[in-house]
Amino acid sequence: MSVLTKILITLLIIVGAMVYLRKPRENGVRASTKELGKNIKLRIGAYVLISLSLTATAAYWYWDWSDGNKVVSVTIVSPMSDESVVYQVKKKDITSNEITTINGIRIRLSNQERIIVANTVNK
To answer: Is the pLDDT of residue 25 over 70?
Structure first.
């Protein structure tokens, strides 16, 4: 829920900046050439800043999505026996008390079990 809130706040700020930049000047005031040049530079700077912000946000979302979909090997070691089982799991499907394999099998973990996460080399 907090990620959705952050996205909505970011979008509101961007829309507010765009509305502010597009707001027409008062009709009775005539600006000098210097002021118009300054305003154009400020607008260009604002558009560049907004574009960089959107690009950085999109890049971060893509990186987070790509990293979350990376398949890793998860080894579960039980303290009661010397057995260890290896599963293939997407990173986003690992939580503190449960993992979901790429085959859709949900595995609950006990407090005593130890997990080892290792990157899988894709060939």
So the answer is: no
Say if residue 27 is exposed, middle or buried (CB neighbours under 10 Å; 0-12, 13-18, 19+).
exposed
Measure the CA angle with vertex 66, ends 62 and 70; round to 5°.
Answer: 170
DSSP 3-state of 110: coil
Whether the predicted model's global pTM rises above the 0.85 cut: no
Indicate the SS3 state at residue 76.
Answer: strand
Asked whether the beta carbons of 104 and 59 are under 8 A apart, the reply is no
Query: Exposed (0-12), middle (13-18) or buried (19+): which is 89, by Cβ within 10 Å?
Result: buried
User: What tokens appear for 83 in the block?
Assistant: 């057995």
